[in-house]
Amino acid sequence: MDKRNRKAVIAGNWKMNKTATEAAALIDQLIPAVQGADCEVVICTPFTSLATAVEKCRGTNIHVGAENVHFEKSGAFTGEISADMLTDLGVEYVITGHSERRQYFAETDETVNKRTLAALAAGLKVIVCVGENLTQREQGITEELVRSQTKIALLGVSAEQLANVIIAYEPVWAIGTGRTATSAQAQEVCAAIRKVVGELYGEEAAKGISIQYGGSMNPGNCAELLAQPDVDGGLIGGASLKADQFSVIVEAASKG
Ligand code: 13P
Questions:
Q1: 224 flagged as catalytic
Q2: For residue 124, how far is its CA from the centre of ligand 1 (angstroms)?
Q3: How many CB atoms lie within 10 A of CB 72?
Q4: What would the pLDDT profile of 115-140 be if each residue is shown by its tens digit?
Q5: For a Cys staple, 40 with which of 9, 14, 97, 136, CB 3.0–4.6 Å?
Q6: How many Å apart are CA 127 and CA 97, to the nearest integer?
Q7: What is the whole-number distance in angstroms between the Cα of residue 133 and the centre of ligand 1?
């Protein structure tokens, strides 16, 4: 299976933006803007907007995801949300291991793995984020680091469960900075991720998994990034908050 046979996945990561009221208004704009898409369209919203998003997106081609999930099923974890709480709402996707979680909320490779396993066990599709910071890139350890982040995140994930995993390569230095990885840099690391998946799960699994690029993807640079042989979609921050911008990226992925 090559790129043509993998479905492109364009996911918006809204981060800590939009009240539920504002989310409803944005979704009203998004629904007509992406309705003809020939790719998977996902919006990952703050917890407080999920119920609204699920309700509004029912019967449309927009799938709803959360931005994080806790690994325990329930209990004394004040402020946390379990995978069952998400599936009960009708949420289909969740992001794990976003660099902002790693950087500001002490997320580690181990907790990313636990969250990924819990989400998969509950039947969620998981977008697992990996990526190096600027120092690590300058030290020349990008590939090693991303390989190990990927391996640890996938520990204990069965071959069957892997079908519900998407990996997002997000270089930290490109997130929210307007500084995008070149298409060659994105391709190089996405190919390295596919290689490690092949080592863990075999060639067919590696060919089947969708790998996204994320980091200042926008209407101007998306076509070139999405044209790379190992880039199967995008995880979009800032540009996912504007229906006109997000829909251009969805369109580019549909031409794929
Ligand atoms: P930006 O597109 O705003 O750089 O954010 C990327 C990102 O972190 C998506 O998860």
A1: no
A2: 21
A3: 13
A4: 999 999 999 999 999 999 999 999 99
A5: 9
A6: 9
A7: 14
Gap from CA of 212 to ligand 1 centroid (Å):
12
Q: Which two tokens stand for residue 5?
A: 């046979």
Query: Domains of the chain: which residue ranges?
Result: 3-244
Contact between 222 and 248 (Cβ < 8 Å): yes
Pocket test for ligand 1, best of 216, 218, 221 (most atoms within 8 A of CB): 216
Cβ–ligand 1 distance for 215 under 6 Å, the answer yes
Domain 3-244: top CATH class: alpha beta
Backbone phi, psi, residue 11, to 5°: -120, 135
Separate counts of helices (H) and strands (E) for the chain:
12, 8
How many Å separate Cα 82 from the centre of its chain? 18
Strand 210-214 relative to strand 62-66, pairing: unpaired
**What are the tens digits of pLDDT across the range 207-232?**
999 999 999 999 999 999 999 999 99
Distance (Å, whole) CA 133 – CA 139: 10
